[in-house]
Amino acid sequence: MSLCMAGKQKRLLENKAEILKAMAHPVRLCIVRNLIEIGGCNVSSMQSCLLQPQSTISQHLSKLKAAGIISGKRKGTEITYTVINDEAKNLANLLIPDASAAV
């Protein structure tokens, strides 16, 4: 067995590591798991559920969005976020099979 990584394998592993890094925070993991469960949510709803300041939630959402895990759809002044990355969905479901445990 060789520990050498070919270019394609290295890119794949780097991509997986980025997903793990983005989700490696309790609040972000909770956000992802609950977005999967309810299908989409805005910051105000997240704020009342997570009991975190809006600015803190927005920072977490920015990290998840930058990693390609979530996307936001604007309707007027409101943005509804959803999980768009299947690997992140699988990981969240594996780590927290019961979404009620994430609340």
How would you name the CATH homologous superfamily?
Winged helix-like DNA-binding domain superfamily/Winged helix DNA-binding domain
Count of alpha and pi helical runs? 5
Radius of gyration: 15 Å
Query: What count of domains describes the coordinates?
Result: 1
Q: What's the CATH first level?
A: Mainly Alpha
From the helix content, strand content and strand pairing, which structural class follows?
mainly alpha
Write the CATH architecture name.
Orthogonal Bundle
Can you list the strand order of the major beta sheet?
1-2
What does this structure look like?
- The structure is a single chain.
- The protein is mainly alpha-helical and 103 residues long.
- 59% of the residues lie in helices and 12% in strands.
- It has helices at residues 7-23, 26-38, 43-50, 54-66, 86-95; strands spanning 70-75, 78-83.
- Strands 1-2 form a two-stranded antiparallel sheet.
- It is elongated and about 50 Å long.
Give descriptors for this structure.
2 strands; two-stranded antiparallel ribbon; single chain; 5 helices; 103 residues; Arc Repressor Mutant, subunit A; 59% helix; mainly alpha; elongated; 12% strand
Kindly summarize this structure in a few lines.
The protein contains 5 helices and 2 strands.
Architecture blueprint of SSEs:
Elements: H1 7-23, H2 26-38, H3 43-50, H4 54-66, E1 70-75, E2 78-83, H5 86-95
Antiparallel strand pairs: 1-2
Helix pairs in contact: 2-5
